[in-house]
């Protein structure tokens, strides 16, 4: 159910995942007017449960978000389904245009839209994503412990993934898929008992709605119960282009993200970012914590702005008049 959307909010939160809802909850508890615009496409939707989240281990992703929306609303935040097409303006006077034609103004913007996983074009792979085609050992490792696991070479983090997953299973294969494995990397894989298969991968085979194995270009099937893939991760922030904000290449070569300072501030005043849009490795707990941290920074920024305005209103002279008086005093004139 959508809430009635007003014309202006102190904070517009774009994205209703862990980061966005945590930020909205914190800001609403700070008695700020808050709107969350959520496209309803959480990255972890295919997952069977959220893991590593203290007190909520194994909670269904949809259930967690439903509870988060209810909690934010209980303190007065508004939540609406929609997709932001563009954000224009400046701090204090941002205007967001939604794809359905609605517009909303905001003094500050919290971007928490997460990212998109761009997967390799291998037949059968995308259909199993988040189920038995995986990416994170801490999100999924326990669930595939002691199972035959394959790791597909897709980028600079693939060898690292194989080494990590060997903590959960003694049966890990590295599918080089025609790429070159450097000698040092090969040694590290060998030390962990990980065999390298150099032949290219032709597809992913499924039997009875479960991964059966990896089909090689030569026709052979290598039985696996899980396949680990490092997709290219790209922040979902095209709507920020009118502000001059765009994602940049991640220093680890895993995709693109928005750069921010330690407090989550973007390069445009009044815009903050939390969660996977800036931190591609953040799990649900870390994303939620980032949303809370950034929300506190936004509230402090609004408080300071309110104080500055109040002080300016109390001063008998304009800033220009004050500078003129100071100059006259400096020249020896008496007031």
Beta-sheet strand percentage?
25-35%
β-strand number: 19
Distance between the termini: 64 Å
Q: What integer is the average pLDDT?
A: 94
Question: SSE order, as H and E?
Answer: EHEHEEEEEEHEHEHEEEEEEEEEHH
Biggest sheet descriptor: 7 strands, mixed
The helix-and-strand class reads: alpha/beta
State the helix count: 7
Radius of gyration: 25 Å
**Shape from CA axes?**
elongated
Please estimate the helix content: 25-40%
Poorly predicted sequence stretches spanning 5 or more consecutive residues = none
Can I get a quick summary?
With 335 residues, the protein is an alpha/beta fold.
Can you tag this structure with a few keywords?
335 residues; alpha/beta; five-stranded parallel sheet
Summarize the helices and strands and which ones pair or pack.
Blueprint: E1 8-14, H1 18-29, E2 34-38, H2 61-74, E3 78-81, E4 84-90, E5 93-98, E6 103-111, E7 115-118, E8 133-134, H3 137-140, E9 149-152, H4 158-165, E10 172-175, H5 183-191, E11 195-197, E12 201-206, E13 211-216, E14 221-223, E15 226-229, E16 232-235, E17 248-249, E18 255-257, E19 271-273, H6 284-314, H7 319-330
How would you explain this protein's 3D organization?
- This protein is α/β, with parallel strands linked by helices.
- Helix content is 27%, strand content 26%.
- The chain is built from seven helices and 19 strands.
- The chain has helices spanning 18-29, 61-74, 137-140, 158-165, 183-191, 284-314, 319-330, and strands at residues 8-14, 34-38, 78-81, 84-90, 93-98, 103-111, 115-118, 133-134, 149-152, 172-175, 195-197, 201-206, 211-216, 221-223, 226-229, 232-235, 248-249, 255-257, 271-273.
- The strands form four sheets. Strands 1, 2, 3, 4, 5, 6 and 19 form a seven-stranded mixed sheet that branches.
- Strand 4 (84-90) and strand 5 (93-98) form a beta hairpin.
- Helix 1 packs parallel to helix 2 (61-74).
- The longest helix is centred in the C-terminal third of the chain and has 31 residues, at 284-314.
- The chain is elongated, with a radius of gyration of 25 Å.
- The protein starts with 7 loop residues before the first strand and ends in a 5-residue tail after the last helix.
- The model has no long low-confidence stretch (mean pLDDT 94).
């Amino acid at each position: 159910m959508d809430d009635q959307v007003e014309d202006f909010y102190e904070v517009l939160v774009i994205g209703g995942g862990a980061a966005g809802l945590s930020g909205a909850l914190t800001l609403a508890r700070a008695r700020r007017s808050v709107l969350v615009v959520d496209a309803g496409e959480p990255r972890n939707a295919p997952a069977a449960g959220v893991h590593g989240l203290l007190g909520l281990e194994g909670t269904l992703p949809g259930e967690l978000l439903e509870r988060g929306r209810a909690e934010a609303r209980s303190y007065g935040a508004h939540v609406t389904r929609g997709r932001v097409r563009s954000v224009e303006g400046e701090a204090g006077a941002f205007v967001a245009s939604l794809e359905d034609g609605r517009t909303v103004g905001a003094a500050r913007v919290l971007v928490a839209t997460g990212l998109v996983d761009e997967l390799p074009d291998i037949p059968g792979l995308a259909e199993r994503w988040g189920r038995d085609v995986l990416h994170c050992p801490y999100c999924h490792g326990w669930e595939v412990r002691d199972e035959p696991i394959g790791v597909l070479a897709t980028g600079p983090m693939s060898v690292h993934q194989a080494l990590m997953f060997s903590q959960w299973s003694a049966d890990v294969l590295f599918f080089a898929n025609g790429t070159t494995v450097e000698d040092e990397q090969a040694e590290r894989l060998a030390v962990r008992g990980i065999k390298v298969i150099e032949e290219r991968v032709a597809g992913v085979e499924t039997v009875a709605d479960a991964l059966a194995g990896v089909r090689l270009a030569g026709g052979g099937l290598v039985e696996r119960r899980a396949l680990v893939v490092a997709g290219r991760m790209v922040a979902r922030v095209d709507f920020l282009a009118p502000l001059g904000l765009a994602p940049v290449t991640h220093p680890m070569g895993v995709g693109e993200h928005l750069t921010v300072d330690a407090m989550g501030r973007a390069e445009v005043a009044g815009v903050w970012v939390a969660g996977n849009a800036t931190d591609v490795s953040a799990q649900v707990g870390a994303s939620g914590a980032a949303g809370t941290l950034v929300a506190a920074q936004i509230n402090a920024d609004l408080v300071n702005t309110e104080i500055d305005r109040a002080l300016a209103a109390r001063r008998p002279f304009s800033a220009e008049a004050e500078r003129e008086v100071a100059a006259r005093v400096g020249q020896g004139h008496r007031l």
